[in-house]
Each structure stands twice: as C-alpha cells, then as structure tokens.
Design goal:
- One of its GO terms (molecular function) is pyridoxal phosphate binding.
- It catalyses: (8S)-8-amino-7-oxononanoate + S-adenosyl-L-methionine = S-adenosyl-4-methylsulfanyl-2-oxobutanoate + (7R,8S)-7,8-diammoniononanoate.
- Its cofactor is pyridoxal 5'-phosphate.
- This is Adenosylmethionine-8-amino-7-oxononanoate aminotransferase.
- It is found in: Cytoplasm.
- By secondary structure, this protein is of the alpha/beta class.
- It has two domains: about 160 residues, Aspartate Aminotransferase, domain 1 (Alpha-Beta Complex); about 280 residues, Aspartate Aminotransferase, domain 2.
- The protein contains 15 helices and 16 strands.
- It has a seven-stranded mixed sheet with strand order 4-12-11-10-7-5-6, sandwiched between helices. Strands 1-2-3-15 form a four-stranded mixed sheet. Strands 13-14-16 form a three-stranded antiparallel sheet, with no helix packed on it.
- A hairpin with a 5-residue loop joins strand 8 and strand 9.
- Helix 12 runs parallel beside helix 15 and helix 14 crosses helix 15.
- The longest helix is centred in the middle third of the chain and has 23 residues.
- The mean pLDDT is about 95.
C-alpha cells in the first residue's frame, strides 16, 4: 500500500508541481523523494526509508524536524492570533522578536522591517539604502556593488546583485546593472604561506579592489552587499573576517552603506549568532531569513540603524518607506522565531555547536586528506570540499548515491558541503562522516 502511495505521489507531483531550481526533465532519471514525515535530523518517505537532512532542508532547519518546543509555541499561538496586518496594527510576537534581535546587536541595529523570504529582505535593504540617500539629499547615489560569485536571491532586484551566471544570464535584459568586485574567497590567494596568511592576503587584495571602485564612483554608490564569511551558493567560498573590517572602514570613509546578507550564514551557522560579530563590525543593514524561524515558517527581516530609520521619519508620506508584504510580521512566524531564540538561550547552542563542530571536523579527516579532495574547509557549522576531476553530472550523481546511504545532500557543482541541523548526536555525526566518504568514493569511481 505504501509503495503505491509513494509512486502515486511522485506521479501527481510531476504532473502538477513545478519544482524550484530544477530542470524537470532530470526527474525522468532521478526520481523525486516523497517525504511523509520528519523527526529530528531525519526525513522519512512512504516506504519507511530515512534520510539524514545534512543540508537542513536548504539551510533552514536548525533544531530538527517536528521540534517539540517550536511545535508547542505554534500550537499556543494558533489559539491566540494567526495573522493580522502590520499596517496600522501591531502584536506581541513581532514586538518581542524585534526587541530580542535588537538586543543581540547591542541595540546598534534597533529597527526591524519584516517580509517573508530572503530575496525580499535583500530587495528591502536595497530600496531602503537608495531611498535613505535620496531623503538625505544624495539622489545620485543609485548604484550597488556585489562580490564576484555572490548570490542574494532570484527576484529582479536581488538578482541584479547576484553574480551566478546560471541564475542571472537568462534574465539579464530585465536587470539593473551593478558593479562587481573581487571575491575575498581564500582559495583565490597565492599558494605561498599558511592557510590563515593566504586568507588574510586575499582579504586585503579584495578590499583594495573595493577601495579602487569607491575612489572612482563612491559619489554614485548607495551600498555594497556582502554575504559575510561564507559565500554559500557559489560553492561555500569562505573568507577571513579581516575583509569585513576593511570594507566597513571603506564604507565609512566613502559614505557607502554596508548591507550584510546573513540569510544563510546568520543564526549561529558560522559560529556566532551573527556572522559579522567575528569581525567586530555591524552593517547599516542586516538581512535575516532561513534559520530565524527554525525552518518552520516563511519569515525574513531587515535590521537597520536609527539614523537610517530617521531618514524616513517625516510628516511627508513620500519620504516614508512605502513597501509592504501581506504577511509582514506574521504572528505565527514570529512566534516560531521566538521559540528558536529561546532554544539558543536555554541550550547554550553556540558553545554546544563548537563541540559538535570539532567532532565532525575530526571525523571528516579521511575526506580532508583524500587524494581526490582539495580545499577542505570549515566555518562554524558549515563544511565543504572540492572534488578533483569530478565526473560529469557530479552533483546529481552524488545526490542520488547519497540517498542510497541515508543522506540528503546536494553538492554545488563539484563542491560537496554539509550544513546539518544543530541537534546531531555523536552517532549521527560519525554516521554522516562515514557515509559521506562512502558516497564520495563511489561517485568518483564511476
């Protein structure tokens, strides 16, 4: 009976659902996996097979599927208030969440504007930057700067500051041009020196490229947008915190806003709650989404400074930030986020993650030292390595082979990465490492 249900779900989905970031024809050879339920770090199909969610379901599920504490918070909220428009109204969950997030920045970023997804948060930050400059008498500051290989979303504005050809090329005629500067990815550094020396040398080279552009066009540039510490979608390109320090100083010097896209790298993923904390700097705009709701409900937000907020504060309606989403500040999503923050506090998650990260890094050493692996790297709860001479269709073959070993993994090109939930047991950590090695060997052997 379950087999029939499994086959039926696949057939119905292929007929009616257009799946994201997917060439649908590929599912003729790589079948969909119909998920029936989730529990902890695992997803289960209708035939009872299980898959360790080693990528947190696109980097969102921090504390496992069907987490009892987040479940309880949402059940309680359902009996109180499921939704109310945030224009002209407010409610306790959105107020409390905004206050808690502000406190986590030492109240440097004291104002939060809400949306539903990461790309929308990026759009908001871009618009806020441009509009605040205009309100302050700098209407010529209309350009944006992004990093080579950067990814910030697939809506029109976010795509304009994305530099991944696969996503961007088809829609080029629709996009506003942006400036692109060198990536601080340490893999691009000269080979001489230690890993730390190489990373810092590349950080300085990349920051010098930003300085060159700011000198040339600073009076036209509204903001630079950066995914701090790890450029995720381009293949987990990691950089030294020094880069953020140097760019923050350049932004101050040349009057350019700094937007940090922490949609994937925030909420503890890189080892601190906000990635930028490791550089000791705060941006003018900070975008959050993905893990902020624990992977439960769509939620995103932009945090910003009081001086940005004050640029819009006026009796003149046209000076206001006229942007909205129907589900802005949804009470259920905010309550999920509050439950997520509570788990961080109660379980000392950041310190616990350091112990888990050390164990998984040690367990992955056979891969780190593998003759067909280069650039093994780790930052917080992110691991990645690049396959040498990877076979054609490496990513799809790895995904399919991983499912045979009870793993959900989706390499980016020839880069294999892990971004697991924060709740893995020692047994699950060891199993993840051993099975990843087995999958890699099988795929590379053809």
């Amino acid at each position: 009976m379950e087999l029939n249900k499994q086959s039926d779900w696949v057939a119905r989905s292929l007929r009616s659902v257009w799946h994201p970031c997917t060439q649908m024809q590929h599912h003729e050879t790589v079948p969909l996996i119909p998920v029936s339920r989730g529990k902890g770090a695992w997803l289960y199909d209708h035939e009872g097979r299980r898959y360790l969610d080693a990528i947190s379901s696109w980097w969102v599920n921090l504390f496992g599927h069907a987490n009892p504490r987040i479940n309880a918070a949402l059940k309680d909220q359902l009996d109180t208030l499921e939704h109310a428009m945030l224009a002209g109204f407010t409610h306790e969950p959105v107020i409390e969440l905004s206050e808690k997030l502000s406190a986590l920045t030492g109240h440097v970023l004291g104002h939060s504007f809400y949306a539903s997804d990461g790309a929308s948060a990026v759009e908001i930050a871009l618009k806020m930057s441009f509009h605040s400059w205009r309100n302050n008498g700098h209407a010529d500051k209309q350009e944006f700067v992004c990093l080579k290989g950067s990814y910030h979303g697939e809506t029109i504005g976010a795509l304009a500051v994305t530099d991944v050809a696969l996503f961007k090329d088809a829609y080029g005629p629709l996009l506003r041009a942006s400036q692109t500067v060198m990536s601080p990815d340490w893999r691009l550094a000269p080979e001489d020196g230690s890993a730390d020396e190489r990373a810092q040398a590349q950080a300085r080279r990349a920051a010098a490229d930003v300085e060159r552009l700011f000198i040339e066009r600073g009076d036209k540039i509204a903001a630079i947008i950066i995914e701090p510490l790890v450029q995720c979608a381009t293949g987990m390109a990691m950089h030294d915190p020094l880069y953020l320090q140097l760019v923050r100083a350049l932004c101050d010097q040349h009057q350019v806003h700094l937007i940090l896209d922490e949609i994937a790298v925030g909420c503890g993923r890189t080892g601190t709650f906000f990635a930028c904390e490791q550089a000791g700097v705060w941006p003018d705009f900070l975008c959050l989404s993905k893990g902020i709701s624990g992977g439960y409900l769509p939620l995103s937000l932009v945090m910003t400074r009081d001086e940005i907020y004050q640029a819009f504060y006026s009796s003149d309606v046209t000076r206001g930030f006229l942007h909205s989403h129907s589900y802005t500040g949804n009470p259920l999503a905010c309550r999920a986020a509050l439950a997520t923050l509570q788990i961080f506090e109660e379980d000392d998650v950041l310190n616990t993650n350091r112990v888990k990260a050390e164990r998984l890094t040690k367990a992955l050493q056979p891969l780190a030292q593998h003759e067909q692996v280069r650039n093994f790297r780790q930052r917080g709860m992110i691991w990645a390595f690049d396959a040498i001479d990877a076979p054609k269709d490496f990513s799809r073959r790895f995904f399919a082979t991983a499912t045979e070993h009870e793993l959900l993994m989706r390499p980016i090109g020839s880069t294999v990465y892990m971004m697991p939930p924060y709740i893995l047991s020692d047994e699950e950590i060891d199993g993840l490492a051993a099975n990843t090695l087995a999958v890699f060997n099988k795929v590379m052997a053809g």
